[in-house]
Design goal:
- By secondary structure, this protein is mainly beta.
- The protein has one domain: YVTN repeat-like/Quinoprotein amine dehydrogenase (Methylamine Dehydrogenase, Chain H).
- The protein is built from 1 helix and 33 strands.
- It has a 5-stranded mixed sheet, with no helix packed on it. It has a 4-stranded antiparallel sheet with strand order 2-33-32-31, with no helix packed on it. A 4-stranded antiparallel sheet has the order 3-4-5-6, with no helix packed on it.
Length: 433
């Protein structure tokens, strides 16, 4: 394995991490519990898998000591993000030599249940599960580091079904682990598998039975599929290891494809809809392209045309593992310099043209989401940074060290911002005072 890949899809954090017991750990003190809210962040990158929340009433000024910490509890190793729905917080962690789905009470951080799903997953690029749970109703769909797909009841942690879909489809786990967060469409749950005859596959939500598979000889990559409406049609868009593939959600037949080759098959960012098209972006000095999708009059054939493209060392946006956010005609994201190197710029570009609007040089690596006219950024070093959504210049409201080194994007629900690392899970109050 090439040494330069060390910083791509995994991060080996502090070995002396705090570990919870099998039946839950010590709950952090929460003198002022979170008020009951209807906020939701049910999957990777939020309600619409685009990093954007419709919540309002969030902070407009930075508190003197930063946002109030509501609770902090032990967690576990891994790069899984946080999913929040119906007052519960779910994430995948690794501890006690196993991979667990953990359910916490959103108000207090109290452990409600933990479900043992698989043996520990170890990888030279970092240990533990990578994918974020997807919650639909009372079911959470989860994908472990080696490729076990499971449906688990949110109410009590009971496993409804569990299948090692990578092995069953005669595939091998991706070199740096299976990182696809499941997407649900209708009665199906879809994941990128990367097997020889199944780049992507769909399974029955109730039973786990294989319903369709599509794509051949394409490695999985590390991106999560999106459900996007393009050319007046809902499509499952998959950014696999060597390109993009759009599929009919119900039957799985291909609609269009677009080659996108990067070193080490490191396509990681999630495809997002931008101005009626779809944005693809990758690191390794590769860059970005905005694709326009056109109907041809044939149900199974669509035309793909780049509206703009920006490739190579001078690209305006080279998303490494971070997915950009499209807001009010602009794209906000991380431009990563070189082959997984340490230099990353926070940048804003005009979505319609790809023209750079501003760049905060050497900001550092991180992830961002957007809500209520603000960018909420979690840095690789564990800081929370809040800045205004402004296409003209970078305006930072403030920053605060919250967790250790991490690769997870923040999750936002009911005015509460949730972060995690390899040791802890933290809830902060980001409501306007």
């Amino acid at each position: 394995m090439h040494a330069v890949r060390w910083s791509h899809v995994a991060w080996s954090l502090v070995l002396g991490a705090v570990v919870c017991g099998v039946n839950g750990g010590t709950v952090g003190h929460a003198a002022d519990p979170v008020a009951e809210t209807s906020g939701t962040w049910p999957q990777f990158l939020g309600p619409n898998r685009n990093g954007i929340s419709a919540e309002t009433g969030l902070l407009t000024e930075w508190p003197s000591e930063g946002p109030r910490e509501v609770w902090r509890v032990p967690g576990g190793i891994g790069m899984s993000g946080l999913a929040i729905q119906s007052g519960r917080v779910l994430t995948l962690v690794q501890k006690a030599d196993r991979q667990w789905l953990v359910c916490l009470e959103a108000q207090t951080g109290k452990t409600l249940w933990e479900r043992d799903l698989a043996p520990e997953y170890k990888n030279a690029m970092g240990n533990g599960p990578r994918a974020t749970p997807t919650i639909v109703g009372d079911t959470a769909y989860v994908f472990t580091g080696e490729g076990i797909l499971a449906a688990v009841q949110v109410s009590d942690g009971k496993v409804v079904w569990q299948e090692n879909v990578v092995a069953e489809l005669e595939g091998q786990p991706a070199e740096y682990g299976m990182a696809c967060s499941p997407v649900v469409t209708g009665n199906l749950v879809v994941v990128v598998v990367g097997a020889p005859q199944a780049t992507v596959a769909a399974f029955d939500r109730k039973t786990g039975a294989l319903k369709w598979k599509q794509g051949t000889e394409s490695p999985a990559g590390y991106s999560s599929p999106s459900l996007l409406k393009l050319a007046d049609r809902e499509q499952v868009v998959v950014f696999h290891g060597t390109g993009a593939l759009a599929l009919d959600p119900e039957r799985g037949y291909p609609l269009w494809s677009f080659p996108y080759l990067t070193d080490f098959n490191c396509n990681i960012a999630t495809p997002i809809a931008v101005n009626g098209g779809v944005l693809l972006s990758a690191g390794e000095n590769h860059g970005s392209v905005l694709l326009k999708i056109f109907a041809t009059g044939t149900e199974r054939q669509y035309k793909v045309t780049p509206l703009w493209e920006s490739f190579g060392p001078s690209s305006v946006l080279r998303s490494e593992w971070q997915t950009a956010v499209a807001m009010n005609g602009s794209l906000y994201g991380f431009d990563n310099v070189g082959g997984a190197g340490p230099v990353s710029h926070l940048t804003c570009i005009e979505a319609a043209t790809g023209k750079r609007q501003w760049q905060q040089l050497r900001f550092g690596k991180g992830n961002l989401i957007a809500a209520d006219g603000k960018l909420f950024v979690s840095t690789l070093q564990g800081e929370l940074v809040v800045a205004k959504v402004n296409p003209e210049k970078y305006e930072e409201l403030g920053r605060k060290a919250v967790v250790g080194k991490n690769r997870q994007a923040p999750a936002l629900a009911g005015g509460m911002l949730y972060l995690r690392d390899d040791r802890e899970i933290v809830c902060l109050d980001v409501r306007k005072k």
